Amino acid sequence: MKTVAYLCAGSSPPPISRYSSPQQSEIERVELAATPVEMALVLHAGSGNKNALKALIAAEYSGVKVELVKNFQMGVSNKTPEFLKMNPIGKIPVLETPEGPVFESNAIARYVTRSKADNPLYGSTLIEYAHIEQWIDFAATEVMLILEMALSTARIISLCGCE
């Protein structure tokens, strides 16, 4: 039985009822009921932004076309009224989609990955899906936190000349 699910960026993991039974190992492929991603998705961020790279890497592995906005200037482009309609606090990255904007890098990566129903990047079993989500959360809460603290410390040391 095919299940139709509305997948929104940043939505909760699919409900357990989406799977036929606890014993079934294969996840039924999800048909995207939202507008198919026919036009290119547009990513607003600087080309070297580490969070934008998540979306671009997910797009590359998923075979989804994502265009990076040319000449994006942090502190300028993200302060325009048009940008603030997409993300009221002016953070990047922001992905323009046919259904509307999506912000926050993990939500964007999930949207891009799930925009193709036959994409294997989210696993084929419930446990594979859980493990993928587990490592996304681990990277966001543990790895990135420590990395950002280390980089901030290095910047402070560099600025004060305490090297």
From TrEMBL:
Source superkingdom: Eukaryota
Matches recorded under Pfam families: GST_N
Lineage: Eukaryota, Viridiplantae, Streptophyta, Embryophyta, Tracheophyta
InterPro entries: EF-1-gamma_plant (IPR044628), Glutathione_S-Trfase (IPR040079), Glutathione_S-Trfase_N (IPR004045)
GST N-terminal domain location: 39-120
GO molecular function (one): glutathione transferase activity
PROSITE patterns assigned: GST_NTER (PS50404)
Name the UniProt record assigns to this protein: GST N-terminal domain-containing protein
